[in-house]
Amino acid sequence: MTFQPYQPASGTLEHIARSTVQIPRAEQWTMKSQSGNHAYQIMVFQPAEAPPPSGYPVIYLLDANSVFGTMVEAVRVQGRRPEKTGALPAIVVGIGYPTAGPFSPHRYYDFTPQATTEYTQNSDGTPLPKQGGADEFLQFIEEELKPDMEQQFRIDRSRQAIFGHSLGGLFVLHTLFKKPEAFRYYIAGSPSLHWNQNVMQAEEQEFVARLEQHPVNVKVWIGMGEQEKTHPARNNDKASSLTERLSALNLPGLDIQYTEFEEENHVSVLPFLISRTIRFACSPES
């Protein structure tokens, strides 16, 4: 038998033009920080639903090149029926980088509190990128990005959340310790607590010491994959211990939770973290 290639009938697939898939109601642009002269790819989603009188809740999302689409689709679907899903429509502000890949090496600089001498090389011996720019990155978010977003969109400044994963999760906790008033909701997914351990411990102690004089009003959630327990870094134990220490303070205005997702690893846990984040930060009752 002679092979005959498929020939679509007139008016079928051969006449349908292909185009790039786009995310509805999302846009992006490049923004250069004044504090560090670094270029960021800012990605913003605005709901179709009308904002509440106080404005939309907002989720600031780190590593947006990798998870902006996942977060937006979850917000878009769940925000349609808050009475059923427990999640209000929200604005998503993704902070990414001008790269086609899911991650940029510059994240090592933006997300780490201080340059470390402990982690300077990858497992294959190649040098890691420059580190230690977390304070500079936080300054960009607070003094440049947030004011720009609040000028363009109707945002409820009392309902701001920040989501970060891995080194991004480390940055979320660094922000909590250094400037807790910056956000109402802190979501640290699989935070790299083995990084900058001495620095983070000192920041935690300073944070706790300030709480008695300067009460906070924050909700903190740390989520990990169960399979991360096998990693030599032992970050599940570190995250669980951090949660226990802060919970034991029994201070009003500080709510911290810890969750492990069964059978999930460091990367596969991301969709679960994102879905739970929407209810955590955008609940009608919060």
UniProtKB/TrEMBL annotation:
Signal peptide residue numbers: none
InterPro entries referenced in this protein's UniProt entry, alphabetically: AB_hydrolase_fold, Esterase-like, Siderophore_Hydrolase_D
Keyword tags: Hydrolase
Molecular function GO terms recorded: hydrolase activity, acting on ester bonds
Superkingdom, natural source: Bacteria
Keyword Hydrolase annotated: yes
Family classification: Belongs to the esterase D family.
UniProt protein name: Alpha/beta hydrolase
Species: Paenibacillus taichungensis
